[in-house]
Amino acid sequence: MNCLELQFVLQDMMDGAAAPAPAPSPEAAAHLADCAACRELFGAAQSLAQGLTLLPKPEASPLLTQSIVAGVLAEHRRVRQLRRRVVLAVGLAASIVLALLAGWFLQPPAPENKGIVQKAPPQAPEAPKLVQRAEDARSAVASLTERVADQTKEQAKLLMAVADSLDLPTNLPALNGWEEPLDPAAKSLRQATQTVADGVEPITRSARRAFTFFVNEMPMFDIPQRN
Amino acid sequence: MSADDALLVRRCLRGDAASIQALVERFQSNVLGLCIRLLHHRQDAEDVTQEVFLRVFRSLKRWDASRPLKPWIMTIAVNRCRTWLTQRTRRPDLVEYLQETAVSPPSDDAAELAREIEAALAELRPDYRLVFTLYHEQGLPYDDIAEAVGKPVGTVKTWLHRARLEVLERLRRRGMVSEVEHELS
């Protein structure tokens, strides 16, 4: 046995806890007899084994015990109180929720359609807007008026040509019997007047139609009533 | 023992004051001894012991009833001591510790041996001292020590081996050596 092996023997010996160190084995005894260092180490191990049994065991004072128990019990009380508060709070919250739910479900039915968002009726094909209609009417009237004006202008040109061809005297004769020489011109004027009247008639007819159109369409709009 | 522990724990969980006191009294010496050994200060050790038991009762519901209670409590104590040591700035000297733990007159050989062992333990590095205390003073097996310190069993054995050698070396230097010649003859 060498010194290292003896150290393992010492470790095994001390693994026996605080029991009195056993006597060395014959091999260990032989090595101890030859090695002074290991002999001292073995002696120290025996002292250690003996001394470990002598180490003072710290005694806790009764005050410490009471303090620990009081602290533990106080914490128990705190935890219990906290748990009770949590249960109370949860119960209170649950009862409030239940009351709200009961109030919601047990209340009388609400008046018809009150508080309920009505569904929009199905959309009818969108009618032309008033502006669009007015624009259409204006353009119709304008085109008619333009056409009638053109006709009138033509009639006026014709009338001017007739007037030029008459070669009227600058010194007008006496009034007696003057209708006869003027008759063709008057006749032309009457014709022109008739033509103008015929030309204006579509305008008046269109205006009448437009007015009727407006009157028919008016009920679609809410016109504020003035008191 | 484990059945006793389980029954005691069940009563404690119900808030039974007598059971709480019984549990404290059963383990407080072990916890206090470990705290004194690790913290080197009686007052600090008592404060930590109180904290340890508060934490023990706080997490008692998480204790595995199939395992012994003592290693579980000692694990909590080890962790609390480590936390305390990291937070503490003041380091009491060895004299204070020895004065507080000496129970016999210094003239007594046995007391002198005990003081030398305590002084040797105080010189150990904290990890070595921890495993030495848990093994030799608290009587925990390697597996429980490994769990308490959070290291593999092999590491614990190595630390304990080195701790013993350092203590033996100090005892040898201080002349605390038993005569072995007569035993070898």
Please provide a written account of the structure.
Chain A has 227 residues and is mostly helical. Chain A folds into 3 domains: 3-54, no CATH class; 62-93; 130-166 and 182-220. In chain A, 71% of the residues lie in helices and 0% in strands. Chain A has helices spanning 3-14, 26-34, 36-54, 62-106, 130-166, 179-217. In chain A, helix 1 runs parallel beside helix 3 (36-54), helix 2 (26-34) crosses helix 3 and helix 5 runs antiparallel to helix 6. The longest helix of chain A has 45 residues, at 62-106. By secondary structure, chain B is an all-alpha fold. Chain B folds into 2 domains: 1-92, Rna Polymerase Sigma Factor, Chain: A (Orthogonal Bundle), CATH 1.10.1740; 102-178, Orthogonal Bundle (Arc Repressor Mutant, subunit A), CATH 1.10.10. Chain B has helices spanning 2-13, 17-39, 42-58, 69-87, 94-101, 109-123, 126-137, 142-149, 153-173, 181-184. Chain B is elongated. The chains are: A mainly alpha (227), B mainly alpha (185). The interface between A and B is large, with 43 and 51 residues.
Low-pLDDT segments, ≥5 res of chain A: none
Following the backbone from N to C, one meets helices and strands of chain A in this order, namely HHHHHH
Number of strands of chain A: 0
CATH-level-4 superfamily name of the largest domain in chain B = RNA polymerase sigma factor, region 2, helix turn helix motif
β-strand percent of chain B reads under 5%
Counting copies of identical and different chains, the oligomeric state is heterodimer
Mean pLDDT of chain B: 84
Shape of chain A: rod-shaped
> What is the straight-line distance between the termini of chain A?
132 Å
Number-wise, the strands of chain B total 0
On the 0-100 scale, what is the average pLDDT of chain A?
77
Main sheet characteristics of chain B: none
